[in-house]
Amino acid sequence: MTNSNKRRISDDSTLSDATVSRIVEMAWEDRTAFEAIEAQFGLNESAVIDLMRKHMKPSSFKMWRKRVSGRRTKHAVLRGAVFLRHRATNSRI
Predict the structure, then answer these.
(1) Which residue from 31, 40, 44 is spatially nearest to 88, judged by alpha carbons?
(2) pLDDT tens for residues 23-44?
(3) For the chain, what is the domain count?
């Protein structure tokens, strides 16, 4: 995907509430890499950070950023991820 095809936060208005909720859930999940969010929703890491900043309370955003900054599991390259697919823990399949 080229840089021009990556969705920026300005396109956030086109995302449904359910989609935003799903992205926030995936971003909070420790084992879901930013690359998985990008593959599924077309939002790169900086767009996800912007979305989180916009849709969270400032204190919650600061806590999340502190937790994910430099975390190996949030970056597929650092953890050697083969699969970029998120599987919710509450799914039956």
Answers:
(1) 31
(2) 999 999 888 888 899 999 999 9
(3) 1
